[in-house]
Amino acid sequence: MTMEIKDFLFELGTEELPPKALKNLSSALESEVRKGLNSMFGDSAKAMLANTTFKSFATPRRLALLIEKLPTHVPSKTTQVVGPPESICYDKQGAATKALQGFASKNNIALDDAGLSIENGKVTYLKVEPEQAIQPMLGATMQAALDNLPIPKRMRWGASRVEFIRPVHSCVMLFGDEVVEVEILGVASGRNTFGHRFHYNQSIELISPLDYEATLEKTGFVIADFAKRRAIIEQQIEQAAKAIGALPVIDPSLLDEVTGLVEWPVALSGRFEERFLDVPAEALISSMKEHQKYFHVVDNNQKILPYFITVSNITSTDPQQVIAGNERVIRPRLSDAAFFFETDKKSSLASRIDSLKPIIFQAQLGTVYQKSQRVSALARTIAIQIGGNVDWAERAGQLAKTDLVTEMVLEFTDLQGLMGYYYALNDGEPQEVAEAINEQYLPKFAGDNLPNTRTGIALALADRIDTLVGLFGINQPPTGSKDPFALRRATLGTLRIMVERQLDLDLMELLAVAADLHSELPARAGLEQRVLDFMLERFRAWYADQAVPAEVFLAVMAVRPTRPLVFDQRVQAVNHFRTLPQAEALAAANKRVANILSKQSLPSSSAVNELLFQEDAEHTLFRELNSLNSTIDNLLQRGDFKSILEQLARLQPCIDAFFDDVMVMAEDEAIRNNRICLLNQLRQRFLLVADISLL
Predict the structure, then answer these.
(1) Quick one: DSSP state of residue 127?
(2) How far apart are CA 680 and CA 618, in angstroms?
């Protein structure tokens, strides 16, 4: 019998949805509906939905989902329900006990039902669920999907108690050519969608689900497919830029946001006065991007040009009027930026240091001024260790946060650091001090650029370490998903800088210096170790992203290197060691040695006495181990952990022979202790890199 299928369309019509969230809402809706259908079909989902396809649609005023070739029925299924043991289900006369009666009542079974049986000493029931039409279940499936959307804050409208991200006006639910009659979020379902707010502000009747996309575009002036609309906008921006002889700079996140703002996109180019180019380009871009959602353009040398591209939501009969309106809107924005820039330059960053004193960084950790003083001192310490200019590091630390009180940064908060760079240059500060003020926030996110200058590196590390030590020192570490001061991101940034910039810094020492710079920390005892453990644990996710097995991380973590660069070098060495043919046997041998040593107390003297050897295997292992000592010491000096493990891998034959031929736990105490000392020497050589026994 051929399985019957139909196409299903769902559309929720709303007030304008948040543009930055639109793409995620759309993908989440599809994901939740898929989950619902998989749950509905159960074990048969893979087979039943093999030819079913999903297509999402999202515009500022609608979320929609088209499901093609959806089976009309959920097939019947039989499941075995296991009940209580037979021994408690019947009394001596064979009558049903309360246990059996309860099981039967719970599962809606008659006590004389033929499906009841005894298997493996327990009462069981074959529950047969008949074939069900899917149409009556679609409403609940869609409602559940909407309830599970990632909406941080829902709203109510009018007198309704219904909640959603925005007020809901309509709902389309078509299964084939029939309306699925339900109420979703307080609105009765139907077959009528609606067109563009300006071009076709009318109801549009849909006959079948497959008509949806084409009907909206041809009749309603709505391009419902988010990806298609995004591609059209990108192409239009490129064409508009080409028409004015410029290159567009298309930020993907801005492109997504603009796509979430329009249903019928039309890209237009406008112009602003060249005098505004005296303002730092980043300030102009921020003003155009954040406030007006404009795309900026550059020349072949990547220098910003006095043009912008805006994306309108209508096809105007007089586009010049639209362009002129946008030019009028952007002019005061850019004028404000120019005014702030000129005003800020009249006061030096150094003169603003005292302005940081009233600003609280954190109630228990003091003001931003106090933080700046601590960061300045710590940056100086770091600069000494990495070969930087200590005076520049100290100066950069003092000025690092002063741009927070400038007019420009108060208006455009995303420009902090960058405006400090421009103002420091204007004040005549050293170039590297100015660059460091901008680099202090790098990296801002995963994969972002790192500081390039030594001063910037010192400042970026000092700022993060001060925050980590301070928050842990007042017992406010991250908990679960809560991390208000972004300590996890600060930690990953610190580790990245140390590892990728090849900085051999001792994190434990820096944490101690940072902690001592605080006047009072309630949780000072053991603070360095707690912060170090937290920071090194962040390496776990780092290496997981690099497909490094967890046991490699754990093997290195076991020996607790306090230098992140060395930690990484050891991980790379152990990960390489895993590929050697001797690795498995040596890991097992190390585990055996570790178990032996854990159960024995080491003799007061750890020296090995060759005169106590009784077996050739003892002599061989001792001789081979000693022959590597000078080589390993030299490799250790160079930090060549990979070669150390390669050298130790050569010991595998004599280690295997030792365990084959030698009884470690000899009855003679002196011989036994001597063998334990030999194994301890072997173990300590491996521990110079990692605890290989954990592999």
Answers:
(1) E
(2) 13
Residue-averaged pLDDT of the chain: 92
Amino acid found at 163 = E
CA dist 406 and 419 (Å) reads 9
Hey, do 77-129 and 357-537 end up sharing a CATH topology, with the first three levels equal?
A: no
Report the interhelical angle of 454-473 vs 390-399 (nearest 10°). 60
Both tokens of 494, joined, read 């610190």
Smallest Cα–Cα separation from 257: which of 453, 18, 49? 18
Question: How many residues would you count in the chain?
Answer: 695
- Say whether 310 sits in a helix, a strand or coil: strand
Q: Kindly report the CA angle at 212 between 166 and 20, in degrees rounded to 5?
A: 35
**At residue 396, what is the residue type?**
A
pLDDT in tens, 250-259: 999 999 999 9
CATH class of the region 569-694:
mainly alpha
Listed residue (261, 322, 270) closest to 293, CA to CA? 261
Place of tokens 């946001």: 257
The topology under which CATH files domain 357-537 is Hypothetical protein af1432 (1.10.3210)
- Three-class DSSP category at 326: helix
Phi, psi (5° rounding) for residue 363? -50, -45
How many helices (H) and strands (E) the chain has is answered by 27, 20
Spans of all domains in the chain: 5-74+133-218, 77-129, 226-345, 357-537, 569-694
Q: What is 77-129's CATH number?
A: 3.30.70
The dihedral formed by the CA atoms of 303, 304, 306 and 309, expressed in degrees to the nearest 10: 130
- First-residue to last-residue Cα distance in the chain: 55
Per DSSP, 290 falls in state I
Largest distance between two CA atoms of the chain: 104
Say how far apart CA 471 and CA 473 lie, in whole Å: 5
- Which value, to the nearest 10 degrees, does the dihedral of the CA atoms of residues 427, 433, 439, 441 take? -80
Q: If you average pLDDT over residues 21-46, what whole number do you get?
A: 93
Average pLDDT over residues 353-374: 95
Rounded Cα gap, residues 643 and 632, in angstroms: 8
